[in-house]
Amino acid sequence: xxxxxxRDAPLPRELTRVIQEQLLGALAELSTHGDTLxxxxxxxxxxxxxxxxxxxxxxxxxxxxxxxEANTLLRDAGRALGDTRDAAVRVETLDALLAxxxxxxxxxxxxxxxxxxxxxxxxxxxxxxxxxARAHYARALDLxxxxxxxxxxxxxxxxxxxxxxxxxxxxxxxxxxxxxxERLHEWRKQVKHHTFHLRLLRAAWPEAMAQRQxxxxxxxxxLGEHHDLHTLMTQLSDEERAIxxxxxxxxxxxxxxxxxxxxxxxxxxxxxxxxxxxxWWTGWPTGSSPAERPEx
Length: 296
Description:
By secondary structure, this protein is mainly alpha-helical. The chain has helices at about 10-30, 35-60, 65-100, 105-120, 125-145, 155-180, 180-200, 205-235, 240-265, 270-280. About 80% of the residues lie in helices and about 0% in strands.
C-alpha cells in the first residue's frame, strides 16, 4: 500500500501498519542479490528516511526513551547502507556533469574510472551492508509491533508536524545566510521529514496537500543535488577540481537561489500550516470542504 494513513481507521493502528509495511519492504529488498540488491539498498535507505520522519510525528506519544531507541535502530540501518549508496551517487553526479560537455577531458575520464572502481570495490559490495541493515530493521520491526495499542491522538501528530516545520524554517534561515554546504544539507534533512509528513497525511485534503508536497519535493531535490555536487568536489584532485569548479559553482549558486525561493514559501508559517492540516484532517462541521466555506 501507499505511504499514507487513512482517515477511516484508528491513528495508532494506521501508523503501526505504515511502519511495519515499510520495515517488511526494506527487509525484502535487502534479501535480494546482485544488481537487484543494489537497487534494493537505494530503496531500503529511502524507506528508512520515511520511517524516521514518521517517528517524528509520533514523538510526543512515544516518549523520549522509546523514540530514541527506534530512531537509533533506523539511523544505524541507514548508516550501514550509506557508503554503498554514496559511492554510486558520486558516479551519477559526475555523469550528469559530463553529459553537459561536448567532450570529456582526459582527467575527467580517469576520474570516472576511479569513481566506478570505488563503487565496485569488494569492500563496498552491498551484501555485507545489507546484512547489517537487515539486523537493525528486524529489531525495529519487533520493537514497533506493539504500537497499535498506543494512546496516540491527532494532537500528537500536529505537534510533530509543527516541530519539523519550525526546525525547517530555523535551519533554512541559517543555511541561506551562511551558504555553507553542510548547513544546507542539515536543512535538507528537515525538508525531507516535512515532505514525508505531507505524503503520510495527504488524505486530509489530497488536492491542497499535493501542491504543498510538490514544492517541498522540489526544494528537497535542489538541496539534494547541491549536496551531491559538494560531495563530489571533495573527492577531486586539484587538476580535476580546476576543470569542474566553474560549472559546479554556477550550478550550485542556481540551486541555492532556487532553494531560497522555495524555502520561503514552504516554511513561511509553521504554526498556521500545522493548524491548517489539523483542520483538514478533522473535517468541517457542515460537511463542505474548506474551499466551499464562506468567509466571515
